Every structure is written in C-alpha cells, then in structure tokens.
C-alpha cells in the first residue's frame, strides 16, 4: 500500500493551522494559562474517552475476524510501548533538569496516535476501518499512558500522586473496557447515540492543537528553535523508534499490514497529551510544547520518509 502523501500533507497542514489559531488566540488574550489547563483537563477526561467509544462503536461490520485483528493490534501496541519505554528512558538520562527529563521521556514514548493518527488512518483505510483500527491501538495507548505515563510524570517531583486504584480505573481504561464490551454485544447502540459520541470525540483534535499553540505563545520566539535537546530527542522519536519498531513487528512474524500500521502510528509526532499533561501537572509545559509543536511541523517530511524506509527494509509484498 502506498501512503497518500497529499492526504498526509493536508492533515499536517490542517493541524498546524489550528495550532497557529491557538497561538493567536493566546496572544489576543482569548486564552490564558488557567483556561489552557482547564481545557487540557476537559480533553483528557471527556473528549478522549468519547474518541475511543466513537471509533469502536461506529463500525457496522461486527465480525470475529475484526475483533481478532483488533485484539492483535492491542497486544502489538503494548509490546511496542514496552520497547519504546526502554528507548525513552535511556535516551533522556543525559538531561539534567528533572522536569524536562520526564517530559522528554513522555514525549518519546507517546506519539499523536489519536489526534493525528485517526485522520491519517481514515485516509489510508477509509473512515470506518481507519477509526476502528485506530481505536484498538488507542486502547493500548490509554492503558499505558494512564499507568506508566503517569508514573513517568510523577518522577519529576512535582507532587503528582499515584493511587493504585486510579491506575486501574481511570478516564483512559474505563472507556476502553466499556467500548470492547459494547462492541462484543450482538446488538448495536442507535446511530444517534454513536454519532453523538463521535461528535464529542472529534472536538479533541482542534482543542489539543489550541492548547499546544497557546503554550508555544508563552515561549520567547528565540527559545523555540534554539534548544539542541529538542532536536536530538526528535531524531530518535521521528526516525529511530518507528524504524526499529517496524523491525520488531517483522521479527514477530506478523504480516505486512501490522508492520505498516505500527510504522504509521510510531512515526507520528509527539502526542498532544505531552503538552496537556505538562499543563495539567505543571511539569515543564514549555519544553513539552517545543517537542510537540516542532515534531508536528517536521512530520510532514519525516513520516513519508520513514514509511518509505520501512517499505524497503521490511515490506516484502504490497498490502492489499
């Protein structure tokens, strides 16, 4: 399968424009840090759960084969996160500032699989299948981000407290479990309900980019592009991790679809959650915004390049 480069370019440009609007809104004082923190909390606790539910429940093709593929995607996703967590931990050890080290580790670990991944997957596999496959990967994403991800943030010493019960029952895991249960039922929710879920989930994409733009607006322009640490981390994030992860999937013996799928989902820029969690918990939000903002801009070039490399190294036949 050849990636639709024009669709990918359009997706990145749209996200960049929304980020610029958020930047302007902050400069014009329609947004401030307090508003940004509340919006971050809203997206994490309300928008993202419905993004998952809308994707899982929006498909009309409920089959055992689809469910099997979805469960394989979850397992593959968790394996990839274990690998990525190791790379992120080692790569960020040289950073002296504890808050920046934690946010750097978080940024390397999590890609923008929901807010940018969904549009790209829909462009490649169609609206229904793209959202369906993406939702199962987001299940792995949420399971890791609400457990190990929160642990990574807590290492900054910023006062983030972890309760064992909250690592099991939270705004990430509960919607995932609920979505799988509802998907497995022999009947479907009314279309008006699933459409409402999708509408709520869709607001997470622009809101997340508003937040990034707003945080970037607080950084002096000269500091945005002058931090060498950012580019070292992004070299690892945008090139080393997706190529290595694709190789791992090949070694696991999975077919080309899963290799290509993992390559897409790991080659995406740093997760918007990097900024939203940094804002929510007051852990180096400026550093998080630089990583996320710059990686989003660079991804228009890096994603097609990485997918071309993966195709040449690991894809033996065309994906149908």
Brief characterization of the structure:
With 320 residues, the chain is mainly alpha-helical. It contains 15 helices and no strands. Helix 1 (5-27) crosses helix 10 and helix 10 crosses helix 15.
Question: What would the average pLDDT be, to the nearest integer?
Answer: 84
Strand content: under 5%
pLDDT < 50 runs, ≥5 residues? none
Gap between N and C termini, in Å? 7 Å
Number of strand segments: 0
What coarse outline follows from CA principal-axis ratios?
Answer: globular
Encode the helix/strand succession as letters: HHHHHHHHHHHHHHH
Rounded to the nearest angstrom, the radius of gyration is: 18 Å
Largest sheet: none
- Summing up helix and strand content along with how strands pair, one would put the structural category as mainly alpha
Helix content: over 70%
The number of helical segments is 15
List keywords for this structure.
single chain; 320 residues; 15 helices
How would you describe this protein?
The protein is mainly alpha-helical and 320 residues long. Helices cover 77% and strands 0% of the residues. The chain contains 15 helices and no strands. It is globular and about 55 Å long. 48% of the residues are buried.
Summarize the topology.
Layout: H1 5-27, H2 33-57, H3 64-91, H4 98-109, H5 117-125, H6 127-154, H7 164-168, H8 173-184, H9 191-202, H10 204-216, H11 221-224, H12 228-251, H13 256-267, H14 273-281, H15 285-314
Helix pairs in contact: 1-10, 1-15, 2-6, 2-8, 2-9, 2-10, 2-14, 3-4, 3-6, 3-12, 4-6, 4-12, 4-15, 5-6, 10-15, 12-13, 12-15, 13-15, 14-15
